[in-house]
């Protein structure tokens, strides 16, 4: 067989793509880190300098105060801008994002670590659900495209795609917690239950996660249904579908040909969708008082906890970079044309 | 509206006929689905609201201390807020801020995006790849978190400042679209043909490229307006910016975080009114974009 | 698998296919009767819009909406009337009994699967028990057409050239031993050398496997190289049909005459080549009564305006023309 002949360039093409993504991602992380450094530096009233001075006033020695401030923000308050920048970047390389002010004594890294799960799990669940739902309804909308139902599905897609996520979230809250209170209004879990692997606690977790996950799902569902509908319509017009029917292939097989070819291009927007949901998590967590990264970011701003703010911003960015790479790898794994390095 | 620009391939009278035919086509497309007409009416309605609304109501809206969070009535169709101010009046007067910001954002987004996209597609080579890297970065950096972080250094509360920030963060999509459009026109020999005729670059861009891309750009502009409306309302809703002006985002914030709209039904109309306004505006713009798609996409028009 | 040595006969009778348009249902194929003699290649030529592709799809009862088969029958020996088949019976007929080869320029292969996997899909769809033998058959067929079978089966569509894809298409139409094969524009969009290779392959495979073959094309020169019989279509009607040497040598219908005059390769002298005046009709411009060709006809008579000419037989071929009784004015040329 000729497999071995082509195997090598395929591997190389994949490696090149991944390397490109990692490179671009690193640049992005660096840019975002630089932005957050300068913002922390430029905040009116200079919190870093202020912290240093207030520690001095409390009777610390300059040396102690300097070190205490450095622990908080990741760089020394004295010294030139460049020294501060290098210090900040150096701490980042050691995954040291400084210490939180609002939760004294706790490192930013551990705060983010415990918040991340409350964002990542609902975002992934929402992405998966909306993908499945949107793809199915997209096929349906494409097949029924000349009828009223198809029009309605497409319009619902456009509308949900166009409406901001907080509108969806607020409407859901208004309906399901105020008008018809069947779901909890906020929080991640009922405090009455003992955390652990017991039915009550897990049930409460799920009960509280319903509205956030549904909001995530509806927020990206519109995009999927619209994209899937137009892909299916395009593929239906392709000759190979008619050819497959004229070769007498079973309906199930023809449908698989159709579905796979229509779904494939969706993987290019998967990363975009996940990125959008990460951004949307700010609103969703604020509305549902859900202790994820978005809420952490908003709270850090209102409590002027700038080290936490910079760290959260950075971690959200990294999440998006990783989502990008994963989505592209998925795409590469499925499309033979990319795999063999034909398309770029 | 922004759809007046046509490729000027003809001159004099024939151009006038073209334009007439074009408007007739627009009319036909609008008539085919009445929902599109509704879209135009909704958006025009909001525009009127933004321009005239604040003139109809007094500068300081009247308060009624006896009717805090009043339920909807004939006098107050959406009830009143925590100070007894009419919610409908708040929505109408708040529209100006929201729309002004949207307009400013759209203008900056489109101007910047078109400029960068055209330049990259036209020059190609090193400029192109550098600008596209920048565009990728602009697209990839999460916009909302960046806005939040920026809000700590810069309290951009006036509509124009807000529009400037949103525009500076949002040009990536337009730039990429314009570039790919430029490249495809180039591929079709459009630019080379014009060059061959000895036309100066300024002419090629101004009179050949831009007009053929106008529909594209106009559609992006509408989409930018919606993006800007969401972002600003969202920022005020989160409460990271000081409440300087009356706008829908402030209303949402007060309804949810002070009015307890999430737990008590009495404050619900106060929450729903701005939401309804946003939904309606979205619906209007979605319907218009749909109509524009059909007007400018010959493949759809043929059928 | 045993192979029936007797090729089936195909009898198309009074076939009418209509397309739904804003102006109502218009006929793309109108009362066409055509018999494909067992073991022969019949060519169908016509300009675009003449209804030839619709005719081809009718053989598999596969006219696509907004089209609809309104009347008629397509009888194939051993199968009965294809137009009465539906559901699973129809599906099993397609591919297994009647093979269909698509135009080369169009992509008739799933871009995401290797040819081999698509071959297996085909085998499973038609309940082939011995898939190994199917693969061996496919390799042999591809080898027969000058390709490296193993390599092709392991390839994706984008790794093959246009001529290779066309040969894969032929392989997929034949590998289940279909005995009626329809080729729709098999050489369009291929370069000249590949064209003649494909035509030679069609001829050779046809003879080896004792098939009944229908070749649809707008290229009279191409069809002249392979066909035994020739049917000329115009405006949804078969206007002339007979042995190819007769039809091309002494065309009876004015349209056939014009068509041949327009092709220097056939009329022999480029200075005599003359384009047919006027434009081919579309669904909407077809006259409702009378002869469909009269607008462009140099022999039109009064009767042509009102009466549609019936098909009559003149020395071995059928012609639908009021003026066909008269001798052809075309300069004779020896047809080899």
Automatic annotation (TrEMBL), chain A:
Location of the ABC transmembrane type-1 domain: 116-331
Keywords recorded for this protein, A-Z: Membrane, Transmembrane, Transmembrane helix, Transport
Organism: Planotetraspora kaengkrachanensis
GO cellular component: plasma membrane
InterPro entries named in the record: MetI-like, MetI-like_sf
Full protein name: Peptide ABC transporter permease
Chain ranges passing through the membrane: 21-40, 120-143, 163-183, 263-284, 306-331
Organism classification: Bacteria, Bacillati, Actinomycetota, Actinomycetes, Streptosporangiales
Stored SUPFAM superfamilies: MetI-like
The organism's place on the tree of life at top rank: Bacteria
UniProtKB/TrEMBL annotation, chain B:
Transmembrane segments: 37-57, 97-122, 217-241, 267-289
Gene Ontology biological-process entries: transmembrane transport
A Pfam family per the record: BPD_transp_1
Keywords: Cell membrane, Membrane, Transmembrane, Transmembrane helix, Transport
Domain of life: Bacteria
GO cellular component: plasma membrane
ABC transmembrane type-1 domain ranges (all copies): 95-289
Keyword Membrane attached: yes
Record protein name field: Peptide ABC transporter permease
Species assigned in the record: Planotetraspora kaengkrachanensis
Lineage of origin: Bacteria, Bacillati, Actinomycetota, Actinomycetes, Streptosporangiales
From TrEMBL, chain C:
CC annotations in GO: plasma membrane
UniProt xrefs under SMART domains: AAA (SM00382)
Topology of the protein relative to the lipid bilayer: Peripheral membrane protein
Lineage top rank: taxon: Bacteria
Location(s) in or outside the cell: Cell membrane
Pfam hit, one: oligo_HPY
Protein name: ABC transporter ATP-binding protein
Gene3D superfamilies in the cross-refs: P-loop containing nucleotide triphosphate hydrolases
GO-annotated molecular function: ATP binding; ATP hydrolysis activity
Primary residence: membrane
């Amino acid at each position: 067989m000729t497999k071995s002949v082509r195997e090598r360039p395929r591997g190389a093409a994949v490696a090149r793509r991944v390397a490109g993504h990692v490179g671009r991602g690193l640049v992005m992380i660096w840019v975002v880190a630089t932005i957050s450094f300068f913002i922390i530096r430029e905040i009116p009233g200079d919190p870093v300098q202020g912290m240093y001075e207030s520690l001095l006033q409390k009777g610390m020695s300059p040396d102690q105060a300097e070190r205490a401030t450095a622990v908080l923000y990741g760089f020394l308050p004295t010294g030139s801008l460049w020294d501060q920048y290098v210090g900040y970047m150096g701490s980042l390389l050691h995954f040291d994002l400084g210490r939180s002010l609002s939760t004294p004594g706790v490192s930013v890294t551990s705060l983010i670590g415990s918040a991340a799960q409350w964002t990542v799990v609902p975002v992934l669940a929402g992405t998966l659900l909306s993908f499945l739902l949107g793809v199915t309804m997209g096929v349906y909308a494409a097949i029924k495209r000349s009828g009223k139902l198809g029009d309605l599905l497409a319009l619902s897609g456009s509308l949900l795609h166009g409406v901001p996520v907080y509108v969806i979230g607020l409407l859901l809250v208004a309906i399901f917690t105020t008008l018809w209170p069947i779901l909890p209004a906020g929080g991640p879990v009922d405090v009455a239950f003992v955390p652990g692997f017991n039915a009550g606690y897990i049930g409460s977790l799920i009960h509280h996660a319903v509205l956030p996950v549904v909001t995530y799902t509806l927020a990206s569902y519109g995009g999927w249904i619209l994209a899937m509908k137009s892909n299916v319509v395009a593929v239906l017009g392709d000759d190979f579908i008619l050819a497959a029917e004229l070769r007498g292939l079973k309906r199930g097989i023809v449908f698989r040909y159709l579905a796979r070819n229509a779904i494939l291009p969706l993987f290019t927007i998967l990363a975009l969708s996940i990125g959008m949901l990460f951004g949307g998590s700010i609103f969703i967590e604020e509305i549902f008082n859900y202790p994820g990264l978005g809420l952490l970011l908003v709270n850090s701003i209102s409590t002027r906890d700038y080290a936490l703010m910079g760290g959260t911003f950075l971690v959200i960015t990294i999440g998006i970079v990783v989502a990008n790479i994963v989505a592209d790898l998925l795409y590469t794994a499925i499309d033979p044309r990319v795999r063999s390095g034909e398309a770029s | 509206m922004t759809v007046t620009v046509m490729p000027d391939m003809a001159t004099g009278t024939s151009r006038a006929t073209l334009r007439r035919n074009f408007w007739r086509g627009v009319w036909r497309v609008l008539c085919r689905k009445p929902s599109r007409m509704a879209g135009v009416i909704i958006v025009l309605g909001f525009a009127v609201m933004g321009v005239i609304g604040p003139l109809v109501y007094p500068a300081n809206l009247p308060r009624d201390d006896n009717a805090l969070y009043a339920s909807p009535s004939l006098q107050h169709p959406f009830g009143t807020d925590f100070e007894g101010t009419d919610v409908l009046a708040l929505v109408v007067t708040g529209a100006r801020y929201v729309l002004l910001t949207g307009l400013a954002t759209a203008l900056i987004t489109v101007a910047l995006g078109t400029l960068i996209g055209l330049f990259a597609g036209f020059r190609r080579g090193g400029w192109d790849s550098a600008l596209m890297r920048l565009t990728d970065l602009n697209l990839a950096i999460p916009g909302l978190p960046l806005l939040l972080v920026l809000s700590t250094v810069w309290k951009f509360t006036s509509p124009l400042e807000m529009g400037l920030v949103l525009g500076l963060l949002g040009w990536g999509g337009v730039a990429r679209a314009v570039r790919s459009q430029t490249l495809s026109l180039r591929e079709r020999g459009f630019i080379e043909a014009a060059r061959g005729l000895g036309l100066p670059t300024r002419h090629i861009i101004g009179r050949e490229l831009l007009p053929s891309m106008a529909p594209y750009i106009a559609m992006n502009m509408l989409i930018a307006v919606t993006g800007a409306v969401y972002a600003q309302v969202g920022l005020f809703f989160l409460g990271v910016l000081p409440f300087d002006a009356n706008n829908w985002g402030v209303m949402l914030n007060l309804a949810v975080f002070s009015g307890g709209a999430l737990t008590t039904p009495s404050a619900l109309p106060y929450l729903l009114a701005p939401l309804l306004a946003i939904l309606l505006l979205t619906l209007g713009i979605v319907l218009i974009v749909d109509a524009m798609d059909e007007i400018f996409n010959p493949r759809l028009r043929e059928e | 698998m045993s192979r029936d040595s007797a090729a089936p006969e195909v009898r198309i009778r009074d076939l009418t296919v209509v397309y739904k348009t804003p102006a109502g249902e218009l006929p793309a194929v109108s009362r066409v009767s055509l018999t494909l003699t067992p073991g022969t290649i019949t060519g169908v030529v016509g300009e675009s819009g003449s209804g030839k592709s619709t005719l081809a799809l009718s053989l598999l009862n596969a006219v696509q909406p907004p089209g609809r088969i309104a009347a008629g029958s397509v009888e194939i020996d051993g199968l009965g009337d294809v137009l009465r088949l539906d559901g699973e019976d129809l599906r099993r007929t397609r591919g297994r009994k009647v093979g269909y080869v698509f135009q080369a320029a169009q992509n008739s292969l799933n871009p995401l699967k290797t040819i081999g996997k698509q071959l297996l899909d085909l085998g499973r769809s038609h309940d082939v028990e011995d898939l190994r033998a199917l693969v061996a058959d496919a390799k042999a067929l591809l080898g027969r057409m000058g390709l490296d079978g193993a390599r092709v089966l392991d390839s994706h569509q984008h790794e093959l050239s246009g001529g290779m894809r066309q040969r894969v298409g032929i392989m997929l139409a034949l590998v289940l031993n279909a005995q009626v094969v329809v080729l729709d524009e098999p050489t369009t969009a291929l370069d000249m050398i590949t064209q003649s290779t494909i035509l030679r392959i069609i001829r050779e495979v046809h003879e080896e496997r004792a098939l009944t073959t229908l070749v649809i094309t707008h290229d009279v020169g191409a069809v002249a190289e392979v066909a035994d019989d020739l049917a000329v279509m115009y405006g949804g009607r078969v206007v002339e049909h007979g042995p190819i040497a007769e039809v091309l040598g002494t065309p009876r219908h004015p349209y056939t005459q014009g068509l041949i005059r327009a092709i220097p390769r056939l009329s022999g002298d480029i200075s005599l080549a003359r384009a047919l005046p006027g434009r081919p009709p579309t669904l909407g411009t077809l006259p409702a009564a009378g002869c469909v060709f009269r607008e462009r006809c140099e022999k039109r008579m009064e009767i042509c305006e009102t009466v549609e000419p019936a098909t009559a037989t003149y020395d071995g071929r059928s012609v639908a023309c009021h003026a066909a009784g008269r001798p052809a004015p075309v300069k004779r040329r020896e047809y080899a």
